[in-house]
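Person: Show me a sequence?

Helper:
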Amino acid sequence: MAGRNATTWEQGFVLDATNAAEHGLLHPTANGDTIVVLASHDCDLVVDPSIEPDCEIIVGRKIAALNGAYTNGKNPRCLHLRFSGGARELLVELLATAKKTIRKETMLAMSPVADVKLSSDEHFTLQSWLSSRYHRPAFSDEFDRRLKAKPAEIHKKIANAIKPTGTDVIAVLFDVDDHEIKGPDDPYSLGIVLVYNVTEDPARAQRTATAAASQIRSLFRQYYFADGRWKDIELRGCSPVSADAVSLHQFRSLKPWHFDYLEIVASD
């Protein structure tokens, strides 16, 4: 990229804590654990300030452990991200609502933390998460209502099944039959695919996804299947599939199910 070497900054780099504090960039509830991450794209960093005067940053915080419901961009409002590409590993929580702007000259005059970086996969996750807030599928109101209806609240139970998977399950894909629904005896037909990671520990990820899929199948039968028939939502299947086996067509035809209904709470 032309001009790429004009700055030591790249998207996903972390601001030094001292510089962050000097500019009042502190996490509202975890000042001492503040992590400021550059969200602006590399191309925008080298554009003349008269055209792109500001940089976008996210004021996040260090966390002790990853919550699987927030990893791999599963929730467009909150991301739990591992920085493993540098000499020092870091776990970070970022909120989409915590974006701020800072003058480009100010940002580029400071230095990023040298020993904390994203791997290429982690950088891709950050980019995907940043875009997901404006590019995510919407399900019908009635399907959404049935998924969240009490006492089952299956949406929360699916989240609880995914939460302990960490980075092993990287996406939850829904295949919903969107025919006109006439009542509870006319159930939505649903297929679920749990896409598991193949870049860290594929065998472990497959076991994790298989266990989560089994748990989800049991939940749907418990709450939506009675007297030999399905009501509200019929689960046709819930299967683990490796990330390298999912085609581009599947990603376009199936809908990623994001955990954006969950209340964001402290995780450590």
Observations:
- The longest helix spans residues 202-224.
